[in-house]
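My current task is to audit a protein record that another person submitted. I have pasted the whole thing underneath without changing anything:
***
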Amino acid sequence: MIAQSFRKLSRISTCTLSLIGFVSTAQAQAANQSATTHIVKSEVQGSNRREIQVTGETTPNMPLIGFIDSPTAGCYQPDRAENVCYINWYYLSVDASPNYMISMTAEINVFGKVATYQGFFQNSMFVPHTMHDRGFKVACGAIGSGGDPDLGKSYAYTIRAKDSAALSSANYGTVYCPAFVP
């Protein structure tokens, strides 16, 4: 009798574990599906690109987060006698009304994140060039080292923004520095 009870309990436990395994697998698959990123809008100008992304299964017809405005990416060399340049943008701006802006980051791809900005119950975010002081310090590089025979190194950058509705926007571009000629 004890052996029969043990066998029944064993079969029930196996079924329960199988059911738990099935539910866990379904939950993991649903989580993976909801983490899918869709590009809902994209623009390209030359080798530069900007896009608006949505995470999840539903894609809104009209995204509420705007493109990031990051005009006049520049690299300048304040002293021609030094191999020191600075990368900066005229300003960085993004809008998500009626949602709130959560964050915006600037990344110079060879260095990683160089700036992070946090929103606080605000529908837009604006970062003037003066907030970066002189800009982000990089090596100017030898003539032709960035692929342009008349300039120095080139640096790829990424600007990303996220809003409170899990929408994100990103700009990808490249800036060329003047060459360091000793």
Notes: The chain has one helix and eleven strands. The first helix runs from residue 2 to 34. The helical segments are 2-34.
